[in-house]
Amino acid sequence: MPVLPSVAVVILNWNGKAFLEKFLPSVCRSTYGNLQLVLADNASTDDSVAFVEAHYPRIRVIRNARNDGFAGGYNDALQHVTADIYVLLNQDVEVEAGWIEPVVALMQEDPRIAACQPKMRAYLQPDEFEYAGAAGGWMDFLGYTFCRGRILYTVEKDYGQYNNASDIFWATGAALFIRSECFHQMGGFDRDFFAHMEEVDLCWRLQRAGYRICYCPDSTVFHVGGGSLPQGNPRKLYLNFRNNLMMLWKNLHSEDRWIVLVQRFFLDILAAVKSLVAGKPKDMAAIYRAYRDYYRWRRNYVKKDHLPEMKLMKMTGVFHGIMIWRYYFLRRKKFSELI
């Protein structure tokens, strides 16, 4: 019999005892035959590490010296984990017993599949897709991200409409399967991001390196979402805007960079004005801070990779249009209506 690829499920934790109590039992029921479980703790101040060490001796604990967010936390921890495939799993995700096997089988079909995600449904509304990943991530040519099954805040019910394995632009960081060799080849996540959009940036770089990103419908996980920062939090809005701009500057082809970023600037001004009119001045301030810090970052930016430039329109999982235009003005709020 062929040897199963070794898999390490690595859960990044920060003060997440309540989530660990609730969801670790499902992870420990995973049936994959060549599996290790790891808790990477980002300098928690609660007793979550003590809880895991007392109740789950099977789980290896890695203690990061400080909280460097999602990007830095995983980069540090994965330096100490040896496996063929890493599974980066949020602390607020419930899994089914056989959730690993289908994704690994799909990845084994083609060594160019560097990263993959399962179907992601909402823990609190299990018949619906979940915001963070749904049935795989896409992006439009201005850098606005969305999913099969979720566009902006419109989330579809799962009727089996996305039960086909497919190539996508990005795989969710809430349940990210990635070949360890590819992760380290790319230098891991970009630490400058801290949290949010770092998996989109990583998947973009993987595609530029010639790899594929895929969605596996035969595996389903259930995500609470907002475990660290809930939707509507100005801090989350700030990180999403700032990191998206940083990602575009890093990855866009030099011929397209200014064309895209100028259009984004005017659309983001509209978003800021809309927030103010809606009585959300903190959201407008978050967008302002995002641009301020993006420009500060850009002044000091030093290119970190030597990947070939690639036109965004030639990549997989890219919508050749403006998603927000079709969503707000043409009222196309489902993936099937958009693409």
Automatic annotation (TrEMBL):
Keyword line: Glycosyltransferase, Transferase
What Pfam families has UniProt attached to this entry? Answer: Glycos_transf_2 (PF00535)
Q: Do you know which InterPro entries this protein is assigned to?
A: Glyco_trans_2-like, Nucleotide-diphossugar_trans
Domain Glycosyltransferase 2-like, first and last residues per copy: 9-133
Instruction: Answer yes or no on keyword Lipid biosynthesis.
Output: no
GO MF annotations in UniProt: glycosyltransferase activity
Q: Does the keyword ATP-binding apply?
A: no
User: What is the similarity comment for this entry?
Assistant: Belongs to the glycosyltransferase 2 family.
Protein name as it appears in the record: Glycosyltransferase 2-like domain-containing protein
